[in-house]
Amino acid sequence: MGAHHHHSTGRTLIVALIITFCFALVEAIGGWLANSLALLGDAGHMLTDASALGLAAFAAWLAQRPPSSLHSYGLVRAEVLAAIFNSLFMIIIVVGIVLTAIERLQQPSEVNSITVMVIAFIGLLINLAVAWVLHRGEQTLNTRAAMLHVMGDLLGSAAALVAGIVIYFTDWYSIDPILSLLICTLIFWSSLRLLREAIHVIMEGVPQHLELPDVGRAMAAVDGVDSVHDLHIWTVSSGTIALSAHVVVDDINHWQQTLAQLQQLLHARFHIGHTTIQPEPASYILQQDLPRQAPLQAHHSHPNE
Hints:
Oligomer: single chain
Number of helices: 9
Order of helices and strands: HHHHHHHEEHEH
Helix content: 55-70%
Radius of gyration: 26 Å
């Protein structure tokens, strides 16, 4: 699953990169021929998105590298690092747009509404195509970070189209920076949420859709298991969750059957496929006085939970 997953992600990002880069070139050539700073500026913005998609595609390629003696998990975390970088990059872009919008509010400048509407409409179609390509691919932290850039352009094109229409009929130039500020607010919060999630992965936090005590009690409810301690759950990369635990068992001679039940439970109920589980006889635990995580036991009122 892993190699195919990362290969598919990389291919999706490359397609999105090609579409974005080609439109940026067309826009840059059109801006140069028309001597339009607005078009050249928008082309520059599209090129920054293309670079973000390029980084995401490179990270997806790195994630395909096999494990080594130096990186025993391979380089799958490259996707998470790319997500962090792209989220921070998007926040910087948003800050720049906000500062420009504030200046425009203080000193409104004339806008060619016809040019804005035409370019905005073409950009809207292009970004819809790129968003569709990314949405059909694997939803990793990496592709979601790339999607943030595309959604920023998509919302920007929609806002520019609305602004162009309003300016054409009313000559109210302030609508352009006002809509930019509203969109920047949405993108800023989305970027922060993704950044927080990516940092949570780097810090090896428990996946947000799982509750560590619930997993521990479910494991303790398996026949032959007395309790579970030193339980750790973390995300290796998008779609890959790892678990390690010490399991206190009643009879070590039945460990193979107990281990099979635990692995089946973790895979079927919690979608955890990478496990390291150490058995400990109950008699051994009683003889030890070691500091460890408080043991998790099954609820007696729900033995089959």
